[in-house]
Write a structure and sequence with these properties.
Keywords: Oxidoreductase, Pyruvate, Thiamine pyrophosphate, Transit peptide. The protein is of the alpha/beta class. It has helices at about 20-45, 60-65, 85-90, 95-100, 130-145, 165-175, 220-240, 265-275, 275-285, 295-315, and strands spanning about 5, 75-80, 120-125, 150-155, 180-185, 190, 195, 215, 240-245. It contains 10 helices and 9 strands.
Length: about 350
C-alpha cells in the first residue's frame, strides 16, 4: 500500500492478499459495471431512457472493493449514483436496464428509475443529496439494538459532505457508538463544483470531530477492500468511522453534463490513461502472476457479451400495469375507498 492518511487512529490497514478466485470476481464485476454503464449511455442517446442518469464509470473499485469486504449481515445505503451498488448486491444488468427504461422487470418494478434501485440488504439510492446518511445511521442503530453483528455502510459524495443532516447523524452515531462506516466517494466535483470551492476543510475524512477517519486511494481495488475490512472491524469494536475514497468519474455529473466546463479534456484523459481502476487491477494481477492477459481478455469479452444480451432482453420487457402504481407505497397494500382502487377511474 501507499501510506493511508489517518485521523484519530494510531494505525490503519497494513497488509493485503489476493487469490485468483477473488481476482476473477473483481475483474468480471468491474467490467460488468463498466459495460452496463456505457450501454446505459447508449440507451439514453437512443431515447429509450428518460429522466436522470448518473453513471459510475471510473468509480468501479469502490463498489466492488466494498462488496468483497462485507459480511452477510451487513447493510448498505447509498446516493443516487447507485447502479453499480445494485449490481454487487446481485441485481442483474437486465433489471438495471429495465428499471432505467421503466419496465416492470426493473429493480424497482420500473417506478424508481436511475436513482432508486434496491436489493436485499441494499437500501438503495437516495434522491435527496445526503438523505441516505440518517437512514444508514438508523440501520446501524438497528444492528446494535437487535444484536445482529452487522455493520451499516453509508455512501455519499463530496458534494453532500457539508450537509447538516450528516453531522446530526454522526453526532448520534458517536454518542451511541453505533457500528457504522461512512464512506465519502470523493470524485472531486459536486456536480461542477470542485471540493475546495465549497468546503473550508477539504480533508473530508477528518470532519467527523470525535469520529476517526481514513483517506483511501479509491482507484485501487485492494486499497479499498482492505480499508473497508479494517473499518468494519473497527466499527464493531469501537463505533463509527469515516472513509474518504479518492476516486474520479470519467463522465459528467449526469448524462446531460459534458463535464468540460469545470475540468479540462487533458485532466480527464490523464485519469483515464493513468488511473483507470480496471487497468490498475489488471496490471497488478498480471504482475503477480495470478492471471494471463488472455484470461483477462476472455473475461472482458464474455462479460460484455452477457451485458449486451441483457440490454436487448430488457428492451423487450413489458411496461408495468396501472395497478402497480399504488403498490409499495405503504408496507400494507392500499385498500379500496368507496369501492374503488387508487388506479381505477372514478
Amino acid at each position: 500500500f501507499q501510506k493511508y492518511d489517518l485521523y484519530r487512529l494510531d494505525k490503519g490497514p497494513e497488509k493485503s492478499t489476493l487469490n485468483k478466485k477473488d481476482a476473477i470476481y473483481a475483474l468480471k464485476t468491474m467490467h460488468y459495471i463498466r459495460r452496463m454503464e456505457n450501454k446505459s449511455a447508449e440507451l439514453y442517446r437512443e431515447r429509450l431512457i428518460n429522466g436522470f442518469l448518473h453513471l459510475y464509470i471510473g468509480q468501479e473499485a469502490v463498489a466492488v472493493g466494498l462488496r468483497m469486504s462485507l459480511a452477510d449481515q451487513d447493510t448498505v445505503a447509498a446516493s443516487y449514483r447507485c447502479h453499480a451498488l445494485a449490481v454487487v448486491f446481485d441485481v442483474s444488468s437486465r433489471a438495471v436496464f429495465a428499471e432505467l427504461m421503466g419496465r416492470k422487470t426493473g429493480a424497482a418494478k420500473g417506478k424508481g428509475g436511475s436513482m432508486h434501485m434496491y436489493a436485499p440488504r441494499f437500501y438503495g439510492g437516495e434522491g435527496i443529496v445526503g438523505g441516505q446518511v440518517p437512514i444508514g445511521t438508523g440501520m446501524a442503530l438497528a444492528h446494535k439494538y437487535n444484536g445482529t453483528g452487522g455493520v451499516a455502510f453509508t455512501l455519499y459524495g463530496d458534494g453532500a459532505a457539508s450537509q447538516g443532516q450528516i453531522y446530526e447523524a454522526w453526532n448520534m452515531a458517536k454518542l451511541w457508538n453505533l457500528p457504522a462506516v461512512y464512506i465519502c466517494e470523493n470524485n472531486k466535483y459536486g456536480m461542477g463544483t470542485a471540493v475546495h470551492r465549497h468546503s473550508a476543510n477539504t480533508r473530508l475524512y477528518t470532519r467527523g470531530d470525535l469520529i476517526p477517519g481514513i483517506r483511501v486511494d479509491g482507484m485501487k481495488l485492494m486499497d479499498v477492500r482492505e480499508a473497508v475490512r479494517f473499518s468494519r472491524e473497527y466499527a464493531l469494536r469501537n463505533g463509527p468511522i469515516v472513509l474518504e475514497m479518492m476516486t474520479y468519474r470519467f463522465y459528467g455529473h449526469s448524462i446531460s453534463d459534458p463535464g468540460l466546463s469545470y475540468r479540462s479534456r487533458e485532466e480527464i484523459k490523464t485519469m483515464q490513461t493513468e488511473q483507470d481502476p480496471i487497468m490498475l487491477l489488471t496490471k497488478l494481477v498480471i504482475e503477480k502472476g495470478l492471471m494471463t492477459e488472455k484470461e483477462i481478455e476472455d473475461i472482458r469479452t464474455s462479460t460484455y457479451k452477457e451485458v449486451d444480451e441483457q440490454a436487448e432482453q430488457a428492451k423487450a420487457d413489458a411496461w408495468p400495469e396501472m395497478s402497480e402504481l399504488a403498490t409499495d407505497v405503504y408496507a400494507k397494500p392500499l385498500e379500496k375507498v368507496r369501492g374503488k382502487s387508487p388506479w381505477e377511474l372514478l
